[in-house]
């Protein structure tokens, strides 16, 4: 297969499916790392709706968790403490045991980690950490990782990148994922593969205040569910307490490492806002800080970040310095901050190595729910998860090869291509997206209650019905708007079902935490035909499929534990 650069928009054989060994959807850190690894074993097609530098990964600031062998117990304890009794012990142990492999991979990539004169990694402390354990490259770990990954991928002859292409459908044949349908500038195309890896990120971009933008709308989550994968704990969305309070999305992040270096959250009068709220003060876990700032905001008390105690701000935090400079803020005065949706903890239910309940579909990175983060993610654990999980996924999928797409699959793919409407928009209507974002922020945001969540659900279902008025009924399932509204509605459905407060999920009407920690599972809708659509109006309603609350330690009758998910 021809070599191509990530970000390339090369020619496609429209009308005929593209066939590869592996299909990776999403070009954030999870997709890039997985494609790189798989490229050693076979041909890879890497498809994403944006280039690698427009992703959550490229914007990561603080760093990546890097516990040394003698610190694994302490790191496990910090992860558990943040995770609200829902951290999966098996996943935690497996991931921590592979930290050295993940860092060996990053060293090989040439990621320029900060080092002390003796060559050891410089590590900083972040919120929720007992000690400094986060490796960094100044305050732009995401940029460093993205540059290292894309440079290396450009030299990987087996990986072909197709950018600006939107996922429309995961294709399922005889109960297994066989590839996916995409569209670029309104023109559909199909990629068929032995195994499909979904690394489409989270859905925190669905909130009016968010550190994300259009790369994180969660379409992949809805489409995986629609194709037959179980989703888990969608209600757990982490809000970062200190985004710069300015108008446009994505709101720039003022990394937690600033508070690790002495910055303080204060009110208009300069009074520390977090004193007496939590024993860790300014370094309390994110959910506690975000909720305090939100509640204080409702009482009319605004939050500011006082950066003056940070030594050498410009040298130590160049990204933050530039953000403030560009936005016209003087770091010598406290800058206004707001909590903002930041990380989707829940997602496609996946095993340690990314297997889902749908055979031959893997879910990776923020799109997946492995149980590593429980009900609240410890800062900088997400990038660690990505680099461990992508290695495990690659090892797992290449251990026992799935069969290549057969003649019948190819014939069906051609039929699908002939049927899909052309000329549909590549992005959701901006008015609809604005409406969904306002709705989720106001009615399903940091502190929730049943009445507000029900109102959000009803409004989303109304919006969904209105889509049919915009295009012909058979075109509805292929509108980006449909998947966006679908993910938002599934998230609200999960939030409504969790009648307790735990981790990042705070219910005003259910403030207590249940003694029995439970997961929320969303089962996929019934699929009357194997190509993934075919319900009455051509697209399943987010109200379809069972919702089960299951004990964290058990699995429902007849449902396999993640370690037994099919390849
Ligand atoms: C501002 C910011 C700072 C952060 N800082 C840190 C940090 O310091 N440490 C840490 O551990 N974590 C941090 N995080 C979280 C972490 O960066 C993300 O969780 C992680 O990078 C997610 O990686 P990913 O590859 O799963 O998804 P992403 O990086 O979001 O990539 C998703 C990819 O999927 C593609 N895609 C999405 N939908 C579709 C579709 N429908 N069709 C085709 N392609 C699609 C996108 O174009 C993109 O290429 C931060 C996040 C943000 C936003």
UniProtKB/TrEMBL annotation:
One of its GO terms (molecular function) is L-aspartate oxidase activity. This is L-aspartate oxidase. Residues 21-383 form the FAD-dependent oxidoreductase 2 FAD-binding domain. It comes from Brockia lithotrophica. GO terms for biological process: NAD+ biosynthetic process. InterPro entries: FAD-dep_OxRdtase_2_FAD-bd, FAD/NAD-bd_sf, Fum_R/Succ_DH_flav-like_C_sf, Fum_Rdtase/Succ_DH_flav-like_C, NadB, Succ_DH/fumarate_Rdtase_cat_sf. The keyword Oxidoreductase applies. It catalyses: L-aspartate + O2 = iminosuccinate + H2O2. It comes from the Bacteria.
């Amino acid at each position: 297969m021809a070599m191509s650069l990530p970000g390339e928009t090369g020619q496609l054989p429209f009308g005929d499916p593209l066939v590869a060994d592996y299909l990776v959807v999403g070009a954030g850190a999870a997709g890039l790392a997985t494609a790189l690894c798989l490229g050693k074993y076979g041909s890879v097609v890497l498809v994403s709706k944006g280039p690698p530098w427009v992703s959550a990964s490229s914007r990561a600031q603080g760093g990546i968790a890097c516990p040394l062998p003698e610190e694994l117990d302490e790191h496990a304890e910090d992860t558990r403490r943040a995770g609200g009794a829902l951290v999966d012990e098996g996943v935690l142990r497996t991931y921590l045991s592979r930290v050295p492999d993940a860092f060996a991979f990053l060293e090989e990539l040439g990621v320029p980690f900060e080092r002390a004169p003796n060559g050891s990694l410089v590590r900083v402390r972040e919120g929720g950490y007992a000690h400094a354990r986060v490796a960094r490259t100044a305050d732009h770990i995401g940029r460093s990782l993205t540059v290292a990954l894309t440079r290396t991928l450009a030299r990987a002859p087996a990986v072909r990148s197709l950018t600006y292409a939107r996922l429309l459908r995961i294709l399922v044949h005889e109960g297994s994922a066989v590839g996916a349908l995409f569209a670029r500038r309104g023109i559909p195309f199909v990629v068929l593969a032995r195994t499909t890896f979904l690394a489409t990120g989270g859905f925190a971009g669905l909130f009016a205040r968010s550190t994300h933008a259009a790369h994180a709308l969660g379409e992949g989550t809805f489409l995986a569910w629609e194709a037959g994968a179980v989703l888990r704990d969608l209600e757990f969305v982490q809000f970062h307490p200190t985004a710069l309070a300015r108008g446009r999305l994505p709101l720039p992040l003022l990394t937690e490492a600033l508070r690790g270096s002495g910055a303080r959250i204060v009110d208009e009068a300069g009074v520390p806002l977090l004193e007496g709220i939590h024993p860790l003060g300014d370094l309390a876990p994110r959910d506690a800080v975000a909720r305090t700032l939100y509640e204080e905001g409702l009482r009319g008390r605004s939050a500011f970040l006082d950066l003056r105690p940070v030594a050498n701000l410009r040298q130590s935090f160049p990204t933050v310095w530039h953000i403030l400079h560009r936005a016209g803020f003087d770091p010598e005065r406290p800058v206004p901050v707001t909590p903002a949706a930041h990380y989707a903890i829940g997602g496609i239910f996946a095993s340690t190595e990314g297997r889902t309940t749908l055979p031959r579909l893997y879910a990776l990175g923020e799109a997946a729910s492995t149980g590593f983060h429980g009900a609240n993610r410890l800062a900088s654990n997400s990038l660690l998860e990505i680099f461990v999980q992508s290695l495990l996924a690659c090892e797992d999928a290449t251990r026992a090869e799935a069969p290549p797409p057969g003649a019948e699959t190819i014939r069906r793919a051609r039929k699908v291509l002939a049927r899909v409407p052309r000329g549909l928009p590549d992005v959701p209507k901006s008015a609809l997206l604005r409406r969904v974002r306002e709705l989720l922020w106001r009615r399903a945001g940091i502190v929730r209650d049943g009445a507000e969540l029900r109102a959000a659900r009803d409004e989303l279902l109304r919006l969904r019905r209105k889509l049919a008025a915009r295009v012909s009924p058979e075109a509805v399932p292929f509108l980006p708007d449909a998947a966006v509204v679908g993910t938002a509605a599934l998230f609200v459905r999960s939030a409504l079902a969790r009648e307790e407060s735990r981790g990042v999920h705070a219910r005003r009407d259910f403030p207590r935490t249940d003694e029995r920690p439970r997961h929320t599972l969303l089962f996929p809708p019934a699929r009357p035909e194997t190509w993934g659509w075919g319900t009455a109006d051509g697209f399943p309603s987010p109200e379809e499929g069972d919702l089960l609350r299951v004990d964290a330690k058990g699995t429902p009758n007849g449902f396999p534990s993640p370690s037994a998910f099919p390849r």
